[in-house]
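Hi X.,

You mentioned you wanted examples for the new student's onboarding notes, showing what a folding record looks like when two proteins sit in one file. Here is a clean example. The first protein comes first, with its sequence line followed by its structure tokens.
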Amino acid sequence: MKKTSKLVYISLLISQALVLHIVEGMLPIPFITPGARLGLSNIITVIALYTLSYKETFLVLAIRILLSVMFGGSVSRLMYSLGGAIFSFISMAIMKKILKDKVSIIGVSVVGAVFHNIGQLIVASLIVETWGVLLYLPILTIAGIGTGIFVGFTSYYALNHLKTINKKINNGFM
């Protein structure tokens, strides 16, 4: 991919992730635990993980978090988001690299969702200075598995659609 095309692609991914983040904030999601969300913007992170380098994927993730906090967040939201995102990104990158033939995009997404929750709980534990917060882990793990499956399936179909479009463009149909 040319440098300019890649920059445009990365910018589009960041803007799509921001839009999904904003839309998700408007959805009334009745979860048992406070602060639980679907993680719609993680669809873009998974797509980036499968179409860009690890460094570029982390760039998309970091800029999306910083901009979303700038648009309407707080320092604590930044800490929770970064904690979850770093754990999620590292776990997904390891799963994709080491177990690439054994784990599907859906499995990578589920691992990312679960580790995102673990990262956020660790941040919460450090903030409130008690490990009792980790009692939420079983409930958040179940929620993470569900949302990870949803994000994984959505990412899978989006990537297949991108491949189809790319083939048509390269074959001169568009």
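Then the second protein repeats the pattern, sequence line and then tokens:
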Amino acid sequence: MAKQDADRTTLDLFADERRPGRPKTNPLPREAQLKFNKRNQLKRDRARGLSRIELKVDQAMLHKLNVLAAELQLSRAELIQTLLSQQLKLYDSQ
């Protein structure tokens, strides 16, 4: 029987073959890693004086924000922060 490279059902033929992928270097499971990283991100943000807000928008607005952010080479969060700052300056000047 010939060995087919696409055939992964006969595991004994591929026991010594290294599969590409992300090496496991962290002993924690992925879910615990995500919680740990998120906690550290929130600590960094607080140290920088940033607060988190949640905003829900429809798909059309999200698409426009993504396109504009790409054109201006900004992240979507940076774009939203810039737009809000501009609107608040206009509001303060009235």
